[in-house]
Design brief:
Elements (H helix, E strand, L loop, with lengths): L3 H9 L3 H17 L5 H5 L8 H13 L3 E2 L8 E2 L1 H10 L8 H12 L6 H16 L2 E5 L7 E10 L2 E8 L4 E6 L7 H15 L4 H14 L6 H17 L6 E4 L1 H5 L8 H12 L4 H6 L8 E4 L4 H4 L4 E8 L5 E9 L5 H22 L1
Antiparallel strand pairs: 1-2, 3-7, 3-10, 4-5, 5-6, 8-9, 9-10
Helix pairs in contact: 1-5, 2-4, 6-7, 6-15, 7-15, 8-10, 9-10
Amino acid sequence: MMQMNDATKLLEELNDRSREVFRRVVESYLASGEPVGSRTLTRSLSEKVSAATIRNVMQDLEFLGLLGSPHISAGRVPTQMGLRMFVDGFLEVRDLNPMDREKIDATMSRSNSADVGGLLDRVGAALSGVTHGASLVLAPKHEAEIRHIEFVSLAADRALVVLVLADGHVENRLFTPPPGQTPSSMREAANFLNTLIEGRTLSEAREVIRTEIAARRQEIDSLAREMVESGFAVWDEGAGDSARLIVRGRSNLLAEDGFGEELERIRTLFDDLERKRDIEQFLDLTEEGEGVRIFIGSENKLFSLSGSSLVVSPYMNADRKIIGAVGVIGPTRLNYGRIVPIVDYTAQLVGKMISDRS
């Protein structure tokens, strides 16, 4: 990603005329999606200059890598680096539009106070509806403390692991136990686990169990040890699935005017998202702390193939821990000034409501 200090340094190298031409080109492109020509700019610049002068300035900006020529026409569009510099150095983020706020608030007020999943589904629908783009919502993992674990034999090659959490939530999964398991070895395995995991979250328990098995390998009956390792691996392997990615508004993005030639790449992006690839990385996008972050094109590998932009913000629980994220994805000519406050407000509202519920 082009860092803020890089954008500032490049901005300092531009004179006032170059800055204004660059800003006008980007703003016009973001509004229309069309290449911008010198004759168009001569009518909007504060300084009266000829089209030939504007063409020379645009050529200089193209040499710097800030503008590009998509076709043989004289019009220019901002490059990815140019968009990054615009976002870092020129973007004016507006206050949240009262109508947008009203729509988002209305979505939250209709939610069932006990149904976080339903709330986040509606958040995704509201974001895509308000922004006319595609929305992404990463639901929080279920990290309640564990109360009890139990293994239930169903057949010689099938068993059930049941996990009871302190908040009353119960999860169970089928798995294939190691050969030779008996009811007593299953009880022994469950007893061993229950002495270690009570009062711990799943992620905390996983590390404790690995350490204990390594330290007490000789003390644990071989059958029980295999059962512990096999049974808990079910939760280990499936842990990522508990972070649910909600995608809404796919049709909005596919129908975007001027974006038709990118349809196949956009379809690939959504296929990846729906198969839940790189979901954990989606949350990692927000690892630098609070606030909205903007990723343009290949600045993030999840969106590099489609050339899309992502505006994303984390939301936090009552302990100020990042537990999920909300975002809007669209073509690189997103209306960033409008989208940023929408995403920021939605993330803060979701965090507050989840904190209130817990």
